[in-house]
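Example record for the data management plan.
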Amino acid sequence: MSREIEDNLEKLRRIAEEQDIDLLELLKKQNDTAVPQANKQKRQQYNYQHDQKHDTQQTRDHSHKTEQSDTSLVTPTKDSAALSSSRPPQAKVGENTDTVSSVKEKDSHSSSTQDQISRHRVSEPQSSSINDKKHLEKLQEEAWNSVLLARHSSRPNTLYYINEISERYVELHGDRCHGDDSALVGGICTIGGVHFTFIGNQKGTNLKENLQRNYGMAHPEGYRKALRLAKEAERFGRPIVSFIDTSGAFPGIASEERGIGEAIANNIMHFSVLTVPIICIIIGEGGSGGALGIGIGDSICMLENSVYSVISPEGFASILLRDAKKSKEAARLMKMRAQDVLEFGFIDKIIPEPPNGAHTNPSAAAAIVRDSILRDYAELSNKDMATLLKSRSQKIINYTRSVNDDRTNTKKSKILTKLKAFFEG
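Corresponding structural encoding:
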């Protein structure tokens, strides 16, 4: 008996490998098919036993009547005719048995055909659900892979790009109010003979540097330093290039006490009306208000394997999905990849990376970023400032609009009207 079970299991394993499905799912499918068949056999057996009992009772009654009448010939009654018609066909003596056997073969063939049809109807939705599940798993892996590449510890950071793409640069410090923030760097550089003011989030490449740079999460003094440098660039007519790579602004108590929300909001307001071209590039993570604080510009780009979102996938999974382990599913639902953000219209273009990510060939990635900055500057410098400011304000207004503009309610329309009046007035 055990040998027979082992043979059956081996057959099921081969079938599962051929159909590329899990063995447990195949067993479940076999069980779903076998249970109705078993119930059908039970009903047939019950009906047959019931007919046998009824036949026996009819025979006894018939014998009793025969003894009372003391006759050898009995006329068949309606009940016996009905009984004989309900019995399965049996070959009589001298009757052609081929006819009976052909009827049985037709019945068995019809039954097997119906079983195959029912089995196909049962397995078809299961196969469809399996394909949908595999497709979702593929999308989740792609989204999560982008998150991992954006967070890679060897990924080029702001100071690496500045050192590679500029002929010379000098870093400036302090917000002239509280102090300096090493999580957000800035200064003056020369790229292709053009003087730029650069600002950007700075992550470390190891644990010691990350602790020093606070993992790229800036305090209020960091955003105030960025605004100070941007105002200086406006005063001297220098274009601004911003490198964004942060999971968000630092949410600590000291950061809240010094007014992190006000600092970010103040940056958004002033950056939107600066009278110099602004080029923003998301080189890694673009997280929440930490990215928006230095992410308002005329040309907003993303590297191919960077991400842009209002919250991290882990935070999304903990708050909305009630399970931090569902971060992969959250990454898919959030549509945070560069391709998705471009489709939503929140960025202007995607900057390609070397195969398998910028960390595999940082110098090549830096050369691509340098060419993109110079092309964007050449395009923006040919436009008058009024056109740039109108286009920049329109980008900010578009951030507040839903995907379907028909659903915009009256309150939201009033807010948009006020924003438009502020930027254009």
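Summary line stored alongside the record: Residues 69-100, 120-124 have pLDDT under 50 and may be disordered.
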